[in-house]
Specification:
By secondary structure, the chain is α/β, with parallel strands linked by helices. The protein folds into two domains: 8-127 and 288-306, Rossmann fold, CATH 3.40.50.720; 128-283, Dihydrodipicolinate Reductase, domain 2. Helix content is 32%, strand content 25%. It has nine helices and 15 strands. Strands 7, 8, 9, 10, 11, 12, 13, 14 and 15 form a nine-stranded mixed β-sheet that branches. The protein has a six-stranded parallel β-sheet with strand order 3-2-1-4-5-6, with helices on both faces. A hairpin with a 5-residue loop joins β14 (265-269) and β15 (275-277). α1 crosses α8 and α7 (176-192) crosses α9 (307-324). The protein is globular. 49% of the residues are buried. Residues 7-123 form the Gfo/Idh/MocA-like oxidoreductase N-terminal domain.
């Protein structure tokens, strides 16, 4: 039986995450990066040569117009996600769009409406739910290994040192909550399966005009008093330790967001020795998600973990957290 042809991808822009995460994982997953589009032709051509993309074109629309492209990766600045993800869907492409999917719950719902009438699927690029480690967590929680899950205590910190980094731009919907605080919110959605009800969050703003929160911490409450305690920011050494606390035990994760081989999952139960597992096998955190997208497009699997099932509740939780922290509403965004 012959193997299916590799799925052909187009990339919008030359973002660092495409270089560092997406393209290496695409190679591991067996896909092809056939074209990258950007506003600066020389820069885009240099990116294509350096990263092994087959062709470079001017502009994002040229990628969507390319008949060779089956799927599109959208790692553009946050306020451009909705417009270009919608355009890619309307061009008949499958879409993997960076998180946060959009900058507001209303725009998220508008984009999901476009996806609902599209022939191809839309995924938001939270890739951890596809990974073996997360699937093991879900299995353990569902089996009652920690009793009833009552609390998620999650961190995501790293250092941002360059002032020009778009994570520090309010106009580009930067800030710690939108960039990395959203990860615990997505984890809570996966494990609780219900929307957040309220939030109590504090944020430390950056100095200067147009600054965004560079650190944030707080609580979001879900049905029956379950909660998420999160801390996130751009001022500390990398830190992603996460605890899942239940009535009969706990699970500790070294890195639930982008685990690599060797990342530990530790199960603790009262009166028993800790059990340590290392479920992650893929070298790249995006790989499992891309394998799934490829299987769907080759009609070898039914789509799972689509944006339609999670993006709305996560956007609403993020908006609750931002409002509680007193952060400004995001600026205008091109709607689908």
């Amino acid at each position: 039986m012959s193997r299916p042809e590799p799925v052909r991808w187009g990339v919008l822009g030359t973002a660092g995450i495409a270089r560092a995460q997406f393209l290496p994982a695409l190679a591991e997953a067996g896909g092809r990066a056939v074209v990258v589009g950007g506003r600066d032709v020389a820069r885009t051509e240099a990116f294509a040569r350096a990263e092994g993309v087959e062709r470079a074109v001017e502009g994002y629309q040229a990628v969507l117009d390319d008949p060779a492209v089956e799927a599109v990766y959208v790692p553009l600045p946050n306020p451009l996600h909705a417009r270009w993800a919608a355009a890619a869907l309307e061009a008949g492409k499958a879409v993997l769009c960076e998180k946060p999917l959009t900058t507001s719950p209303a725009t998220t719902e508008a984009l999901l409406a476009v996806a609902a009438r599209s022939p191809r699927p839309l995924w938001e690029a939270f890739v951890f739910p596809f990974q073996a480690q997360h699937r093991r967590v879900v299995e353990l929680v569902a089996s009652g290994a920690v009793g009833e899950l009552r609390e998620v205590v999650a961190s995501f910190h790293f250092t941002v040192s360059r002032p020009e980094n778009i994570r520090l731009s309010a106009d580009l919907f930067g800030g710690a909550l939108a960039d990395v605080g959203c990860y615990p919110l997505r984890l809570a959605h996966e494990l609780y399966g219900v929307p957040a009800l309220d939030a109590a969050v504090v944020a430390e703003p950056a100095g200067g005009a147009g600054g965004v929160e560079v650190e944030a911490a707080g609580r979001l409450t879900y049905a029956d008093g379950r909660r998420v305690l999160l801390t996130c920011g751009f001022r500390r050494a990398p830190e992603t330790t996460t605890l899942l606390l239940g009535t009969e035990g706990s699970i500790r994760l070294d890195n639930p967001w982008h685990p690599t081989p060797g990342a530990a999952l530790q199960l603790r139960r009262t009166g028993a020795d800790p059990v340590v597992e290392h479920p992650t096998t893929d070298a790249r955190s995006f790989t499992a998600a891309l394998r799934h997208v490829h299987a769907v497009l080759r009609e070898e699997a039914e789509p799972e973990l689509l944006a339609a099932g999670s993006a709305g509740p996560v956007a609403a939780a993020l908006a609750l957290a931002r409002r509680s922290a007193g952060l400004a509403e995001p600026g205008p965004e091109a709607t689908p």
